[in-house]
Amino acid sequence: MTTLADLDPDQRPRERMLRLGADALSDAELVALLLGSGRRGTSALTAAHELLLAHGGLAGLARADGADLLRAPGVGPAKATRVVAALALARRFGTSTDRRSTLRTPADVARVAAPLLDGAADGRVVVVAGDRAARVLGAVVVPGADAHASPFAVREVLAETLRRGGVTLALAHRHDDGAAPGPEDHAATAAVADAAAHCGLRLLDHVVLHGGGWTSAGSEAGWAP
User: Minimal CA–CA distance to 189: which of 163, 161, 208?
Assistant: First the structure.
């Protein structure tokens, strides 16, 4: 079996990236760099090919969590966390402030939040913080928040918004069972809107992704300036 040591030094992933740039590398080569090494008798490049094959390619690997990766032969906690962290950063780049997306409609909220709600996301809450003109300052999964919990994590949502300097905010979560927003979603929306107003913030909307689409749970959406 060919290992990285058997390759010409110029053809090894690390050397190729330094010489040609990351865009010249295949998905497997980039994953191999994250893994750092393979298992006994198997190179990092072979291990990367196996991971991609097991998850149906890069898109499937991006949906995997640490527990999924730990089931792969030769992948321990250090390798699993490196891969998950790198792919999480890639998802966050899709909502990066560098792009200065502006939230104008519930569809914009769904688009910005969707990458953070990929995979097994039922109950995960995303807050999108914006400036006064609703230009995106950041989007993040709210730590400790569960969309199905009662009471809803209002304090945590507002804290994440303020931490990013937000004046406007939008919420999103996903129903993995495909159900449309229910009374609990509307109640959570009202609670956040009321608390936000007391803090000088404005809730734009609360969008629930379900099936292949989304529905606004904002009974009185705050899109008007």
Answer: 208
Check if the beta carbon of residue 179 is closer than 8 Å to that of residue 143: no
Q: What CATH number was assigned to the domain covering residues 4-93?
A: 1.10.150
Instruction: Indicate the average pLDDT of the chain.
Output: 84
Q: Does the pTM exceed 0.90?
A: no
Both tokens of residue 114? Answer: 């969707």
Give the bridge partners for 216, in sequence order: 207
Q: How far is CA 130 from CA 38, 43, 77, 89, 201, in A?
A: 43, 45, 35, 20, 10
- In the structure, how many helices (H) and strands (E) does the chain have? 9, 5
The 3-state DSSP class for residue 42 equals coil
Where do the structural domains in the chain lie, given as residue ranges?
A: 4-93, 97-216
Nearest Cα neighbor of 140 from 154, 159, 122, 155 is: 159
CA 159 to chain centre: 19
Q: Are 58 and 27 in contact (CB under 8 A)?
A: yes
d(CA 94, CA 102): 13
pLDDT in tens, 143-182: 889 998 989 999 999 999 999 999 999 999 998 887 888 8
Q: What is the CA radius of gyration of the chain?
A: 21
CATH 3.40.140.10 assigned to domain 97-216? The reply is yes
Report d(CA 32, CA 34) in Å as an integer: 5
Rounded distance between C-alpha atoms, residue 125 and residue 143, angstroms: 8
